[in-house]
Amino acid sequence: MEPYDLIVIGGGPAGYLGAQRAAKKKKRVLLFEKNKLGGVCLNEGCIPTKTLLNSAKIYEHTKNGNSFGILTENVLIDPTAIQKRKNRVIHMLVGGVKMTMKKHKVEVIYQQAKIKGKTDRGFLVEAEGEIYEARNLLIAAGSQPVIPPIKGGKEAMESGLAVTSRELLDFPQLPNKLVIVGAGVIGLEMAAYFAGMGTKVTVVEMLDKIAGTMDRKITKMLQKELEKKGIQFMLGYQVTEIEKDGVVCKKEDQWIRCKADKILWSVGRHPIIKGLGLESVNLKIENGKIVTDEHLRTSVEGIYAAGDVNGKMMLAHTAYRESETAVNDMFGIQDTIDYGVIPSVIYTNPELASVGETEESAKEKGLRMKTVEIPMAYSGRFVAENDGIGGICKLLMDQDTGCLAGAHILGSYASEMIWGIGALMEQKVTIEEMKKIVFPHPSVSEIIREAIFKF
Ligand code: NAI
Asked: Residues that bind FAD, according to the entry (predicted)?
């Protein structure tokens, strides 16, 4: 039998989209998935969290409807119904991916696959004793949560006191007191959900700010908005031990105990590279990540790696673009990925969306920036729809090119607006050219137009 044109290992966003794109090019594609199609994104990440966060948002809006003239009393939460809806959404979307694979004639085998070596015709892949052959491989095996080896950590995981976001998302009851370790994207979204639903939430973060490298001033504003919802932040504290009823945190020579009936580990994720047989083809790995270039080529010609497994930017939409780039490159279409214009979003309420340079990163690179910052209240629609909630739009212009170099928006619909700024940055449209763009009125997106005219 002729080798497949492509074997994909992993059925998450990078894997299923790569398979679909290749099949659309009339290539013969086989995809291996050891668990469920859709990967972390659909089954235990992006989609379930957004479903839960929307329930929290509806609950908050209903409770706080008074200032909008909506009088409600005795608003109740039904955690079982929330879980059921979340599972229904996952089921529907995973079903959609299955249908797409079928429609594009991608063969899907639900088994664990391992690379076995290289021949003159391509690569050998083994699954449950069978050998498959392909001219190209796309490794899209994803990532898993980091569990730091701290005292009491293993016991807490075994007893169920400490969990990762995977277990917490399926938890049938709301905990009374939740301690979240890490104020990165997962930590903040989980904090927003559980605090929104009435759980007492403490977030312990060893850095002096939340949300990693995102704009310092805006993340401070987000922190304030989240504190208004009752979330307590302990910044500069490192969790060093887990006890039977909580965590021990350390800041310089100060130690604090923080009680909890659930603890969430959200201290990062690392690529899954074990068991893939990468040594059989001598694939280059650095710091536990598969090394890739801007075409997603690995150190072995014909093998590509897309998504979390290369550890470049662990985001589903990055995975999509990476797999498209990889598939284009392997079938002779010139393509490269520009990581500098990929947006990132924290889906709290308010949302924080960001693309490109921050003031801090621009300074480090020695770029000459002009910054404009305006409150979201410059948008009539934002004012019409929000009460007692702050927001800001901050744009950075590269003075040498006259183009936008970064954008950071805190406020409603930020996640839906940021792609446009990324596109303008990618197309290198200047601020002067942007002034001719017409935005619908009234819309929150007009904030971008307002900000552009301040340069
Ligand atoms: P993260 O890397 O975003 O944040 C982890 C945080 O934990 C860091 O701020 C770190 O300083 C802190 N930390 C580490 N050890 C600690 C300790 N012992 N005590 C206190 N703080 C400690 O990791 P996170 O939030 O787990 O997310 C994992 C990946 O998933 C990220 O790459 C993220 O981009 C992605 N993701 C993206 C989403 C989105 O785009 N909306 C949603 C969910 C996940």
From this structure: 50, 308, 314-317
